[in-house]
Write a structure and sequence with these properties.
With about 250 residues, the chain is mainly beta. It contains two helices and 15 strands.
């Protein structure tokens, strides 16, 4: 079963943490459908025919548009006044850099560079660049999990090599550009008390054959359950990376 992991590639590649569905100029934008966990706020995006299915118990279906129609062009401003006849004036000094927003823990220590935020259910998620990766944190300081993009395993304990399951028609467009970048898949149970695991994308990938192997996913409570692979899908090898620590909250920007 493909669990809509390719959607994570869109906002991760953008590094601005937004999902953008391109539409023709002036045309109605496409919509996105997702199941949102009422307790944890974790999001599972539904693609294609799955968008018409009901969400599991304990989740709510949410539908939103990626973009509206283009607005009309504004009117041109008036021309500015010409300068005096005394010759060209000296160039002004360069302005000071705007600076970078830093995410800080409750004790003042640095969590990392602020890269954006989003609201998921009861949580506000802060995306932080640190240790070469992009990681989600909740405001209370714990490393959060983008569980809707759970990696795939080929062992029943979900402890061996991890893979990212993607339709073949999305690999070149979405996955390949992420290799070597800060995009990370983070897994953690919904209660945020257990250890987190993180992976980076690699350029190694294999196509699932006509007889797919038995595969497994981690559920929100940490259970390793069986899942289905579809022939023709791409299994992208993930590289395990050290997970950053939790911090004391509340997190602030400075």
């Amino acid at each position: 079963m493909f669990r809509n992991r390719s959607t994570s590639l869109v906002f991760a590649a953008a590094a601005a943490l937004s999902v953008s569905l391109a539409a023709a100029d002036g045309a109605q934008a496409a919509s996105t459908t997702a199941c949102v966990n009422k307790k944890s706020g974790s999001v599972k995006v539904l693609l294609g025919k799955k968008a018409k299915q009901k969400c599991p118990k304990g989740t709510s279906k949410v539908v939103w548009s990626a973009a509206g129609k283009n607005g009309k062009n504004g009117t041109n401003g008036k021309n500015g006044l010409n300068g005096g006849s005394g010759g060209n004036g000296a160039s002004g000094a360069n302005g000071a850099d705007g600076g970078t927003l830093v995410v800080r823990a409750g004790d003042g220590s640095t969590v990392g560079v602020f890269a954006g935020s989003t609201g998921l259910g009861p949580f506000t998620i802060l995306y932080v660049l640190r240790d070469g990766g992009l990681y989600p944190y909740v405001g209370s300081g714990q490393l959060y999990s983008n569980n809707s993009f759970t990696p795939t395993f080929l062992d029943a304990a979900c402890t061996g090599p991890a893979y990212f399951e993607a339709p073949s028609d999305t690999y070149t467009l979405f996955v390949a550009p992420l290799v070597g970048g800060p995009s990370r898949i983070v897994y953690r149970t919904d209660d945020l008390t257990g250890p987190a695991r993180a992976w980076a994308y690699t350029s190694t990938h294999t196509t699932v054959g006509a007889t797919p192997p038995v595969a497994y996913d981690l559920t929100d409570d940490g259970t390793c359950e069986t899942t289905s692979l579809a022939p023709g899908e791409e299994l992208v090898t993930l590289r395990a990376v050290p997970t950053p620590p939790d911090f004391s909250g509340p997190l602030t920007l400075s």
